[in-house]
Write a structure and sequence with these properties.
CATH superfamily of the largest domain: P-loop containing nucleotide triphosphate hydrolases
Structural class: alpha/beta
Number of helices: 18
CATH architecture of the largest domain: 3-Layer(aba) Sandwich
CATH topology of the largest domain: Rossmann fold
Shape: elongated
Helix content: 25-40%
Largest sheet: 8 strands, mixed
Number of domains: 2
Bound molecules: adenosine-5'-triphosphate, magnesium ion
Oligomer: single chain
Strand order of the largest sheet: 3-4-5-2-6-7-1-8
Strand content: 5-15%
CATH class of the largest domain: Alpha Beta
Number of strands: 15
């Protein structure tokens, strides 16, 4: 679930106790003029506080600059902004020494304590020593900068502010001790921070979930491709705001230092992949069609926009599952619409509406004709849209694949791995893209994990991925120009003739246009 950007985060309003927080503390003498990074200037000489000014006063992302005279990097600002919202769940994987503990966690703790009276912030780390050795010293420094210590009571792994709010460091060695914390104070707040999450047992996270915190931050340099922290980026990605940070995003980590690390350990070594690039160690172990590293590479370095064919793909569903409409224009996924609807007529109506809104003609539209897809395709045809029918279980173009569905998934996944397509920002889609496993049939054909099997692993049907990968693979694929007739289960005579002509012309076209291959 994405954090809603609507909630106001300043919650003093409903309490009757006059509280000294933010506004009561004199801002520290700014060490240096904080970098504005192009954002609007503050409230200083303005008669009315603007929205930005209010945000600067109370929102977490402005806290380090306003109260500690620090200049967070853009990624630190973005992570804090995500955590600003109540009910946020933020997962951060970042290079070693990037500033997770001293900038992100320490600011969050101090902000929470200062802003929410009688609230609680619980901090733990895979290795508890880290709390006392890294986080608390940063918190102590922050306290000194803010008030010179006034109003705060800091112990080795405890913090209390005059408003009754507390932060505690807690040793994660015993998950049972993690029970019993709850949201508290007039604003009902409990923040949970897990540092070095890669070294934390899953039991701790489950205990954390049972406490139902109002904000969660889990962060780490990434480790093995398994466990709760890994799943926040994969299987459960749609529940989290995810961030990945490389050493190159951190100006204090010099190019020389990075180069030295890389030349010592090797560009491809697991250590470098994790400590510099913020990647989990070898997620290919998991046997998925598309690895997280490959997906994130494509998201982080998308190709230039290229015009080309428009291809829409529809994955039909009734009842519980989602109907998905995806539109690709050239090398870019531009639309992803999903809905749940029991009434198939309404779904047909909605689809026709979408086709019309985007000015699509039948020839640009592809749909899954399996199961319920068949009557849906028929209904669309009756309404004038004889769309291309794709049979996932049908014959592939390339005999090395088990069926057309596998072929579409594998070829489109390769397009993503090669950074040839501009994807759309959708956590649920991303979750589905990186969780389906490869299966090789008894005859050695490349296939996909069955949906039933995925269900037994707690994964929903990957409908969004079906539609997006369909849109990437159909119409000749990204960069391609047509689809061969074998994908239509019921080609019309004119389609057959048209295709025969196209096939005849094929030899005169440059290589690399083999549809779906
Ligand atoms: N915005 C910033 N500007 C300047 N220096 C920064 C900034 N953010 C972090 N740093 C510096 O980065 C260094 C490392 O910070 P920190 O220990 O918090 O990183 P970390 O990501 O927690 O590292 P580790 O992976 O070892 O846990 C600190 O010395 C800090 O001063
Ligand atoms: Mg740290």
């Amino acid at each position: 679930m994405k954090a809603k950007k609507s909630g106001k985060t300043h919650h003093h309003g409903d309490t009757t106790t006059p509280l000294p927080p933010v506004g009561a503390i004199a801002a520290p003498p700014s060490k240096s003029a904080p970098t504005k990074r192009g954002r609007p200037k503050g409230s200083k000489n303005k008669p009315k506080p603007t929205k930005d000014a209010v945000s600067k006063e109370y929102d977490l992302q402005w806290f380090p600059e306003r109260w500690m005279g620090e200049s967070p990097y853009p990624w630190q600002f973005n992570v804090l902004e995500a955590l600003n919202y109540k009910e946020s769940r933020v997962a951060l994987k970042a290079a070693n020494g990037s500033g997770k503990t001293s900038m992100v966690a320490a600011s969050a703790v101090l902000w929470h304590v200062v802003n929410f009276p009688d609230s609680l912030c619980v901090c733990t780390a895979g290795v508890f020593r880290q709390i006392e050795a890294a986080l608390w010293p940063s918190i102590k420094r922050g306290v000194q900068t803010m008030t010179g210590g006034e109003g705060f009571e800091v112990t080795q792994s405890g913090l209390r502010f005059v408003n009754g709010a507390r932060a505690i460091g807690f040793s994660a060695s015993d998950p049972h001790k993690a029970e019993g914390w709850h949201r508290q104070g007039p604003t009902d707040n409990l923040m949970f921070i897990v540092d070095e999450a890669k070294a934390c047992e899953d039991g701790i996270f489950h205990a954390m979930e049972r406490c139902q915190p109002s904000r969660i931050l889990i962060m780490s340099s990434p480790g093995a491709a398994a466990g709760y922290f890994y799943e926040a980026f994969t299987k459960h990605r749609e529940r989290w705001d995810t961030f990945t940070v490389t050493a190159f995003d951190c100006p204090h980590l010099t190019k020389d230092w990075i180069d030295e690390q890389i030349s010592t350990y090797g560009e491809k070594s697991p250590l470098i992949r994790s400590m510099i690039y913020g990647e989990f160690v070898d997620d290919s172990e998991d046997g998925v069609v598309l690895g997280l590293r490959e997906l994130e590479g494509c998201l982080q370095e998308p190709p230039e926009r290229k015009d080309g064919m428009r291809v829409a793909f529809v994955d039909f569903a009734a009842g519980g599952d989602e109907t998905v409409f995806c539109l690709r224009e050239g090398n870019e996924i531009t639309q992803l619409e999903t809905w749940k609807e029991r009434d198939t007529n309404r779904t047909i109506g909605r689809l026709i509406n979408l086709f019309d809104r985007h000015g699509l003609v039948a020839d640009e539209i592809y749909g899954d004709e399996g199961g319920l897809g068949l009557p849906m395709c028929d209904a669309l045809a009756e309404s004038g849209f004889s769309i291309h029918r794709v049979n996932f279980g049908g014959k592939p173009f390339d005999g090395r694949y088990q069926n057309r569905g596998s072929e579409m998934w594998h070829t489109a996944a390769r397009t993503i791995a090669n950074k040839e397509v501009r994807l759309i920002d959708d956590q649920k889609l991303q979750q589905q893209l990186v969780t389906r496993r490869v299966e090789v049939s008894r005859t050695g054909k490349l296939g996909l994990e069955a949906k039933d099997k995925m269900k037994s692993r707690g994964l929903a049907s990957p409908d969004r991925a079906d539609a997006v990968l369909g849109a990437i693979a159909c119409g000749g694929g990204v960069g391609g120009s047509w689809e061969r007739y074998s994908s239509f289960s019921k080609p019309s005579l004119s389609e057959l003739m048209e295709d025969a002509q196209l096939l005849a012309e094929e030899s005169s076209l440059p290589s690399g246009m083999d549809a779906g291959g």
